[in-house]
Amino acid sequence: MNDSSWGAPPQAGYWGPSDQGPVQGAGPAGPAYDAHYAQQTRPMPIVPDVPEHGGDQDDDDQGTARPSGPLFRDEPFHDQSGRDEPYRDQNPSAQPYAAVPQNPEPMPDAPQPAQPQPPQKKSAGRDLGAAIGVGVGLGVVIIASLFVVKEVFVGVIAVAVVVGLWELTKRLEERKGIKAPLVPLAIGGAAMVVAGYARGAEGAWVAMALTALAVLVWRMTEPPEGYLKDVTAGLFAAFYVPFLATFVAMMLMADDGAWRVLVFLILTVVSDTGAYAVGWRFGRKKLAPRISPGKTREGLLGAVAFAMVAGALCVQFLIDDGTWWQGLLLGLAVAVSATLGDLGESMIKRDLGIKDMGTLLPGHGGIMDRLDSLLPTAPVVWLLLVIFVGSG
Q1: What is the CB neighbour count within 10 angstroms for residue 173?
Q2: What is the distance between the alpha carbons of residues 237 and 188, in angstroms, rounded to a whole number?
Q3: CA-CA distances (angstroms) from residue 250 to 165, 192, 203?
Q4: Cα gap 342→347, rounded to integer Å
Q5: For position 109, what pLDDT does the model report?
Q6: Domains of the chain by residue range
């Protein structure tokens, strides 16, 4: 059917021509015939030509799209009750489409205004009881070994170095897939501490060089994939943990070596405690939010104040030939180096995506979480004491 069949206006009672129209011998058309003929035919609406695949493209090869829908199917309609009904022209009461629900779902209630929450009590962020208990226990072990037999304290440093290396290399492998060789690092790290105590800086440098060589050779026993990143991480670990810890053993070589180490430990702990206490109570402005969101500028000022006061007292009364003003400078340097060391380990943990390096010390984390401030502070204290009062 095309549009030309709709050209002339229809007469009254006439529904349009059909292939089944009057034939020769039939009676003349008239109202009675028209009514009868209308019952046998249905009007065909004009359906626009639509490409078979949709869209606005012209596709002459596909021809006119086939009309579809209830008006062009041979199946009967189904009302909501499921009964079959005749076509609409035979039963005008039938509905060719699904009925629109009369009771749509109600609109959701408007959001209620947020109720004010009671102020949260400020938390310290860790188990203070466990942290204090572990700290006191470590202090007793360190003090006892430091003032009874110096060699035992050197052994304590070596054990701490080995455990710290294990934690660091384990986290690197877990989080980054970096396999720094632990065996040469552990043996070389312990040897580095002993060499620093026995031979001073010269022995420490020689042990460091041999440890680096051992790392390079040890990694050659495995496939070459990842060799560069593994040995680079191994050299970093050798310098970061055992080499910096060697300066603590080198302090012990002086005549008042035990007191120098004690001053070093006291100033570092006081600096951390002052930063923690002042920052927790008065901290408002973040110091390095992208690295360690918990540290504040007020906490840094607290670390500086506490460390300078403790430095003046310790150098004046515990170090041979030391004076209070030297202690002020030493305390200032310790506060800065301890804060930078803490931020440095926080940067490593951020990169690894972890909160603590380990779980060995309840309330503290791992050994490396306690060495973070001590390691970079050790060469600073060793150097300043050598400058102020000599190597002893």
Answers
A1: 15
A2: 11
A3: 20, 11, 10
A4: 9
A5: 56
A6: 130-253, 255-392
Count of residues in the chain: 392
Q: What is the pLDDT of residue 347?
A: 95
What type of residue is 160? A
Burial 292-311 (b: 16+ CB within 10 A, else e): beebbebbbbbbbbbbbebb
Q: What is the pLDDT of residue 304?
A: 97
Please give the DSSP secondary-structure letter assigned to residue 106: P
Predicted local distance difference test score (pLDDT) of residue 134: 74
Of 210, 209, 196, 199, the closest CA to residue 244 belongs to 196
Burial class (CB in 10 A: 0-12, 13-18, 19+), 266: middle
Return phi, psi of residue 286, to 5°: -70, 140
Cβ neighbour number for residue 45 with a 10 Å cutoff: 9
Please tell me the predicted confidence (pLDDT) of residue 296. 94
Distance CA 112, CA 266 (A): 55
* Distance, C-alpha 387 to centroid of its chain: 44
List the chain residues with pLDDT less than 70.
1-128, 130-131, 363-364
Could you please report the per-residue DSSP string of 342-375? HHHHHHHHHHHT-S-S-SSBTTTBSHHHHHHHHH
CA quadruple 265, 266, 270, 273: dihedral sign? positive
